[in-house]
Amino acid sequence: MMQTKLLSIIIPTYNMEPYLRHCLDSLIIDKGMDELEVFVINDGSKDRSSKIAREYQDKYPNTFYVIDKVNGNYGSCINRGLKEATGKYIKVLDADDCFNARALQDVIQRLMNIDTDVILTNYVIVRNEKTESFFLNYADGQVVNIDSDVVEYFSMHNVIYKRSLLKNMDYIQTEGISYTDQEWIFYPMLKADSAVFFNLSLYRYTLGREGQTMDWGTLCRNIGMIENIVMQMLIRLTDYKNDISVCRRKYVENVLQVQIELIYRVELLSKRKELCNIEILNKIDKMIFSYNLDFYKKFSNQAMYMVSYVKYFRKGIIFPNRFRHLLLLLQKLENSLKR
Question: Domain Glycosyltransferase 2-like spans what residues (predicted)?
Answer without folding.
Answer: 8-166
